[in-house]
Amino acid sequence: MSKRKTNVEKLREIRDKMNEEVKDMDVDEYLEYLKSQSTLHTKKWWAEKEKSQNKSLSKA
What keywords are assigned to this protein (predicted)? Predict the structure, then answer.
């Protein structure tokens, strides 16, 4: 029987993968890496979604 991964486990895997990719980079390489990441847009979207959910919860 296969166990499905939780969101936390998935995020930890992503974090570990990114840490491994940037481990030996200098500052300039790291900044370029951050600029090239398509996931940064996704993170911004999730932050905005969470912010709007918090506002709607506080109104309830």
Answer: Coiled coil
pLDDT in tens, 21-36: 888 999 899 888 877 8
CA distances from 40 to 45, 46, 47 (A): 9, 10, 11
Whether the full predicted model's pTM is greater than 0.70, yes or no, is no
Q: How far apart are CA 59 and CA 55, in angstroms?
A: 6
Report which residue type is found at 51: K
Which backbone phi and psi does 2 adopt, to 5 degrees?
Answer: -95, 135
